[in-house]
Amino acid sequence: MAAATLLDESALSVYVLLALTASVTVGVTLLMGHAGQVSLGHGAFYAAGAYAAGLLAKHGFPSWIALLVAPVAAAGIAAVVGIPLLVLRGHHLAFATLAMHLIFLSLISELSITGGDVGLQAIPPLGFAGVTLSSVRSYAFLSAGALVLVVALARNLLVSRPGRALRALSSSEVAAASSGVAVGHYKLAVFALSAGFAGLAGGIYAFYMGYLSPGSFPVMLSIEYIVMAAVGGLGKVSGAVAGSALVFLLVHGLSRISTLSGMPGTAPIILSYAVYAVLLVSAVLFLPGGLVAFVLARWERPGARSERAAPVSEAKPGDPANEGVTSKHGSFS
Amino acid sequence: MIDVESLSVLYGAATALDGVSLSVRAGEKVALIGANGAGKSTLLNALSGIVEKKAGTIRIDGRFAHVPEGRQLFPELSVDDNLRLGAYRASDRDPAWIYEILPELARLRRQRAGSLSGGQQQMVAIGRGLMARPDVLAIDEMSLGLAPIIVQQLAAQLMRLNAERGLALLLVEQSARLALSLCDRAYVLETGRVVAQGAAAELLDSPFVERAYLGGPIEDAP
Amino acid sequence: MNAFFSYLVHGISVGCGFALVASGIIIVYRVTRVVNLAQGMFSVVAGFAAATLLGVGLPHGFAELAAIATAALVGFLTGVVAIAKPGTNPQASLIATLGVGVFAYAIEVLTWGDQPRSFSGLTGAYDLWGIDVPKQYLLITLVTLVVFGALEAFFERTYAGKALSACASNPYAARLQGIGVVRMGLYGFALGGALGGVAGVLLTPVQPISYDSDVSLFVNGFASAILAGLKRPVLGLLGGLVLGIAESMVAGYAKASYQSSLALLLTLAILIAQAARREALHAVEE
Q1: How far apart are CA B130 and CA C22, in angstroms?
Q2: Using CB atoms within 10 A of its CB, is residue C139 exposed (0-12), middle (13-18) or buried (19+)?
Q3: Which residue of A has its CA nearest to C229?
Q4: Distance from CA of A25 to the nearest CA of C (A)
Q5: Residue C119 belongs to domain with CATH number
Q6: In this complex, do B76 and C179 lie within 8 Å of one another by their Cβ atoms?
Q7: Helix axis angle, A237-258 relative to A9-34, nearest 10°?
Q8: How many domains does the structure of chain C reveal?
């Protein structure tokens, strides 16, 4: 996949954002698919990483250090916030993550250190040992590299012992707990790790854009990640990448069409919202395995990208989270 | 009134019921015994239309009410409300006649159903089932978790209802002794199949049933 | 002192709005076990619809009622997406309502554009004991009290209300009695839509709405519902009032921009405390 960085200039800017978004989505899909937590606030971790990197760079730290701090900062915040937050389950947790995102936005809009509503301007470019990254192509390589790293970490997590514990978690939290798995620890670890992924992407974003403002990180951003994760199939790492690509390119393409002359100014918003909504609802209601898996199966392409689903359990959106939604007496079917 | 033929029901990928045939005639008392997981509750759920059948036929002539395992009341609602909701399908929603049959409930009518004792809850559950004015009343594991004396009282009520009003009964029990002593006929269900059936008295004497089911949890009354 | 009372008055009417949204959330949750993330959207749709209808000349009263009916219909449709498909678990339903809300954004922007809208309600104010009480605020409070009285009566005294409660209390047992749990769920959603609609038509004259106003409405409504324990709708009124007054005070005496964070933190604190207590009880039971 990293080989796909040999693209022309105009496509590269899309590529950068796509790769960054995909990195965040990998974390979200791990969280939703294997730890059963709906996160309506991952955009906040993306923002946290971005602001952390931007702030450090502006205050004189070497930019590459700032970049490395970004995921650590995001993961750190997640670990701290996660301790009280992860006591919650199901819809309470979903609400809490949304609240977290909103509170974070409120904070960065108020504090003068983060530049308030205006944000951070003129972030120094990313540089390392005398080499400065200034071309889009260089960021394309960087963000692709980050994505590869994130994917590798995620895959590694899933096949490791903690990872298998995680998959036990996704099929039944109660069963996992009674067989000795430290449920709380794993949930927190995945939460922090996924935040770290988002933070890394955010850090790169800060340098790529050169400026940040609260407006770059609306709640809608968090929802986009969920859509992409759902489309790719919750819990499937490659699905996260494929889902991100699909949704991102689709929306981007529609934006291009809708900004053609003759279309109303609000057309891009309308189309993108409609696409997100339809994809999300279809994925969650009809194709919990992911649209991508569904399409692939249909067309029976002999897999160059033959991704096997995690063998233990096909991540079903939400069984573990049901522990919190006390359906003691049966389901709706 | 109830005629089940070759019923098969799936539970996920597993077979919960495999070619089960069973009948309950008007005014009869039929016992369905078997171990945990044998498929008894599934059969009742199938009769209630809650689970879909994979194969076979179910024919019910008349009204059928199902008192589920574990009482399954509406805990935040009052006893009175629980009873009234039992008549959702029926036309008469007045529970006065239930209070006559089960006078202890009259005393509890305004109480939250969740705050009652096990025996009282079972009474409410049976009352709720009766509110539907059924011709056949199926009760799943009535004796579970209840003191023997309470079970005897409930059983006596049911026998009266059967004798005086012709209410057919389908008693599902792990405790074979109780069910067999109350009923005329019985079926034995094992992992989804009927492995024995016949007159209750005969099954009580059968060594097979005795070995597998009569060493069961209910102790002989002193 | 005057400032205090004017904050109080403002807080009460804002709180009533929250309470109405909260009641929608509570009812849908009670009947279906689903948290409806699109609840705020019902208010936005109603507000927009009322603005349009008033704009084309429909008289006050009719326009609002039509708008509320529209919101009820939208609620019903949301319910269809969220629960009509058999086998949808509550988490999937939650995400489905999220999707509906986003889709509504598209429709709203398409129909009404992306700018805030408002319409005039009752203008002028009464002078009550030296305090200026805008007439619209009084209307909001009055209507809210009436609505909550009706809700309480419905759930506590009518058979249909009990049947709806039964679905939430024990869906399996409800089905055994012949109660169509999905159908009841849809009614619950429709009712939630109507309640959101009432909130929308009452609040829009006071605060212009735009397509993304649903987030803050939902957040505040859910916070009020949490304060009420997500149980009886009438408690949502108390929760809403507490929250509304608290926010108004914060906005008046401290900084306005902190008021939503206050709501959020308060809600989170309560949620976490409740959950932690439950965990502790479980641990004791083991």
Answers
A1: 38
A2: middle
A3: A92
A4: 16
A5: 1.10.3470
A6: no
A7: 130
A8: 1
Q: What letter represents residue C163's amino acid?
A: A
Report the candidate in A233, A261, A327 with the shortest Cα–Cα distance to residue A33. A233
**Residue C268 belongs to what domain range?**
2-285
Counting one residue from B and one from C, how many pairs have CB atoms under 8 Å apart? 49
> Hey, are the CB atoms on B50 and C176 less than 8 Å from each other?
yes
Of how many residues is chain B composed?
222
Structural domain B2-62+135-213, CATH architecture: 3-Layer(aba) Sandwich (3.40)
Separation of alpha carbons A15 and A5, rounded Å: 8
Nearest CA in chain A to C222: A95
Cβ separation A226–C219 shorter than 8 A: no
Those residues with Cβ within 8 angstroms of residue A252's Cβ, 6 or more apart along the chain or in another chain: A14
Residue-wise pLDDT tens for chain C (286 aa)?
678 888 888 889 889 999 999 999 999 988 888 889 999 999 999 999 999 998 888 888 888 899 999 999 999 999 999 998 887 887 788 889 999 999 998 898 888 888 888 888 777 777 777 777 888 888 899 999 999 999 989 988 999 999 998 988 898 999 999 898 899 999 999 999 999 999 999 998 888 888 888 888 998 898 888 888 777 778 889 889 988 888 888 888 777 777 778 778 888 888 888 888 877 776 665 4
Residues of C in Cβ contact (< 8 Å) with A87: 272, 275-276, 279
Name chain C contacts of A89, Cβ cutoff 8 Å. Answer: 275
Please name each of the domains of chain A with its CATH number: 10-301+312-323 (1.10.3470)
Q: Does residue B60 belong to the interface with chain C, where contact is any CB pair within 8 Å? A: no
Residue C31: list chain B partners with CB under 8 A.
none
In order of A122, B143, C141, the CA distances from A200 in angstroms are 20, 60, 49
CA–CA separation, B135 vs A319, rounded Å?
A: 39
Q: Give the pairing type, strands B193-199 and B185-190.
A: antiparallel
CB nearest to B50's CB, from C163, C169, C175: C175
CATH 3.40.50.300-classified regions of chain B: 2-62+135-213
Instruction: Pick A87's closest partner by Cβ from C89, C106, C276.
Output: C276
Find chain C residues with C-beta within 8 A of A223's C-beta: 98, 102
Tell me the ipTM for this assembly: 0.87
